[in-house]
Write the structure tokens for this entry.
Amino acid sequence: MASGGNAIRGSRVGAGPMGEQDHGFHADRVAVSYWDALGNETVRYFAAGIPDDEIPETIDSPHSGLPAGRDKANPPALAKAEPYKTHLAYVKERRSDEEAASLLDDALQQLRDRRGQ
């Protein structure tokens, strides 16, 4: 068991009254609020001297993982979840045989034109 020293339990060793200022914790900061589509608010702090155009308009919300914007009235919309498609649904979306034949003919003609040049 190690013992000794006069540090108070839980204090940081070597941290003096100037230690936090050296790290910039007492710098002037600006609080910027972001809202996601579920109404969660996230507050981020930026240096007071930073130009407004360098502050991001959107961030990822740590509460929900959704995009969050600075406009409370119009937050970024929820992403649309595409439903799972079965193989049959993809087969129904295929082109007709005539369209497929014309696309193939166009592609072959373009290849023949490139070879001819």
